Amino acid sequence: MEIGHNWHKWKEILGDAVGLGERVGMDEETINNVAYRLGNFFADKFDPANDEQRLMKELWDEGNEEERKTLASLMARVSHKASTRH
């Protein structure tokens, strides 16, 4: 299954999802927990479609649980920030 060859589009979709979570009342901790669970799902089920996703997968695979949670939180923030610029 293809999850997005274009890094910027993939990041925009993730950012939109973070924005939706905020609009429905999710707090930052909940959003970060969802991002972490999605990160696990994507790492297990999908092959990276571009160099940026490959790097994210390598970092995810190398990290321990706490590092993965940090990576998920950072990715959620970066993606949300990028989506609010459009």
From TrEMBL:
Gene3D superfamilies: Protein of unknown function DUF3243 (1.10.760.20). This is DUF3243 domain-containing protein. The lineage of its organism: Bacteria, Bacillati, Bacillota, Clostridia, Eubacteriales.
